[in-house]
């Protein structure tokens, strides 16, 4: 996660969950899907944010010891305030791109965070080094095709402007895992769609969650004229009885070492 992205999420920490319905659903589904064994007693959570997944983990019985990290101190503060983790929950402000905590951990998990990492293979290699033998890595992330309606409208409104972020494909995640000596034993993808009354509400929701803007200072944002054109194109192409759709494509991966 770049410094720009970390700062945006820090600014959005207090209000993040008010518009994070999809992220909350993904965290709940990940816990249902991951098949956490009783012996997985030391779990590393990558990119915990405000604790949407952390709270699910801390509600399990038996409760694992969870060490949750995030690059944003403000997000960590909200996570601690919202999570009744007791002594089995520890948190740390740490940028996972730079370093990971000392292991060994019996399981690593992450929900709606790893799509911000530009070099997933490097992260997975570092992660493999802090896991105990037989440990698994289970995560969910947004895939290529997420917010495709918005991306298409943006390209049409400002064809010469580089998109703010490029999300990984399912195949790209698989290749990154393979480069790190990991194998995705179970994979599934889901599509979730949220509807908004207007494009302004969608953009406001994304902004309040720290999603809008560019992760690189070298990439410019849209001008007012381009933004106005984006809204017009979005409305013209996608308006329907339920409102304007915003589609999320989510990948779930459960992996072990090769």
Task: Explain what the structure shows.
Residues 43-134 form the Methyltransferase domain. Its EC number is 2.1.1.197. One of its GO terms (molecular function) is malonyl-CoA methyltransferase activity. Helix 2 (21-34) runs parallel beside helix 3, helix 5 (120-129) packs across helix 7 (170-179) and helix 6 crosses helix 9 (224-238). This protein has helices at 3-12, 21-34, 52-58, 73-82, 120-129, 148-157, 170-179, 199-208, 224-238; strands spanning 42-46, 65-70, 89-93, 105-111, 131-142, 182-196, 244-257. The two termini are 27 Å apart. Mean pLDDT is 89; it is low at 213-218. It has one domain (3-257): Vaccinia Virus protein VP39 (Rossmann fold, 3-Layer(aba) Sandwich). The protein has a seven-stranded mixed sheet, sandwiched between helices. It has 258 residues and is of the alpha/beta class. The longest helix is centred in the last third of the chain and has 15 residues, at 224-238.
For the largest sheet, list the strands in their spatial order.
3-2-1-4-5-7-6
Q: How many domains, in number, for the residues?
A: 1
State the helical fraction: 25-40%
Distance between the first and last residues' Cα: 27 Å
CATH superfamily: Vaccinia Virus protein VP39
The name of the CATH architecture is: 3-Layer(aba) Sandwich
Order of helices and strands: HHEHEHEEHEHHEHHE
Mean pLDDT rating = 89
How many beta-strand segments?
Answer: 7
CATH classification class: Alpha Beta
Class of secondary structure makeup? alpha/beta
Protein name: Malonyl-CoA O-methyltransferase BioC
Domain Methyltransferase: 43-134
EC number: 2.1.1.197
Pfam families: Methyltransf_25
């Amino acid at each position: 996660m770049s410094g720009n992205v970390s700062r945006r999420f820090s600014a959005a920490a207090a209000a993040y969950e008010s518009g994070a319905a999809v992220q909350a659903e993904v965290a709940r589904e990940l816990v249902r899907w991951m098949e956490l064994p009783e012996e997985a007693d030391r779990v590393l959570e990558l990119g915990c944010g405000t604790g949407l997944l952390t709270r699910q983990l801390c509600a399990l019985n038996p409760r694992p010891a969870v060490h949750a990290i995030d690059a944003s101190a403000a997000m960590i503060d909200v996570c601690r305030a919202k999570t009744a983790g007791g002594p089995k929950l520890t948190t740390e402000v740490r940028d996972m791109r730079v370093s990971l905590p000392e292991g060994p951990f019996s399981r690593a998990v992450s929900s709606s965070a790893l799509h911000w990492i530009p070099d997933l293979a490097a992260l997975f290699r570092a992660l493999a080094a802090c896991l105990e033998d037989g440990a698994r890595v289970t995560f969910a992330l947004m895939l290529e095709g997420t917010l495709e309606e918005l991306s298409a409208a943006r390209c049409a409104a400002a064809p010469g402007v580089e998109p703010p972020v490029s999300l990984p494909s399912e195949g790209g995640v698989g290749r990154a895992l393979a480069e790190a000596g990991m194998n995705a034993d179970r994979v599934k993808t889901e599509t979730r769609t949220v509807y908004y009354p207007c494009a302004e509400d969608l953009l406001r929701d994304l902004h309040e969650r720290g999603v809008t803007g560019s992760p690189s200072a070298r990439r410019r944002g849209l001008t007012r004229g381009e933004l106005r054109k984006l809204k017009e194109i979005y409305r013209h192409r996608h308006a329907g009885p339920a409102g304007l759709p915003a589609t999320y494509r989510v990948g779930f991966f459960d992996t072990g070492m090769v």
